[in-house]
Design a protein that fits this description.
This protein is α+β, with helices and mostly antiparallel strands and 90 residues long. Helix content is 43%, strand content 12%. The chain has one domain: Orthogonal Bundle (Arc Repressor Mutant, subunit A), CATH 1.10.10. A three-stranded antiparallel β-sheet has the order 1-3-2. A hairpin with an 8-residue loop joins strand 2 and strand 3. Helix 1 runs parallel beside helix 3. The longest helix is centred in the first third of the chain and has 14 residues.
């Protein structure tokens, strides 16, 4: 079982790796979650929840990494104004 601190490392790992294991193209957030969990299973512990809303912490870390990489030409939201979870990897 991972600790909250270990799960929070996931954002840095993903930003530094630039999601290299996800091919270029358009992907929905559920598929991104699946790929991340398959690639980093020890950092994606479903039992570690966010204290404010009980969401899985590792999924929050994935979204933070995507937002961070959006500032660089690595990923972009397909529909910027929508919360549809569709991302394009460049």
């Amino acid at each position: 079982m991972a600790t909250l601190e270990q799960v929070k490392l996931l954002e840095d790992v993903l930003v530094n790796s630039r999601f290299y294991f996800i091919p270029k193209g358009v992907h929905n957030l559920k598929d991104i979650y699946k790929a991340v969990k398959n690639h980093y299973p020890t950092l994606c512990d479903d039992s570690v929840k966010r204290p404010d809303n009980k969401e899985k912490e590792w999924q929050h870390q994935v979204r933070l990494a995507l937002k961070s990489l959006k500032k660089k030409p690595v990923v972009s939201k397909v529909n910027e104004d929508e919360k549809d979870g569709i991302w394009e990897f460049n």
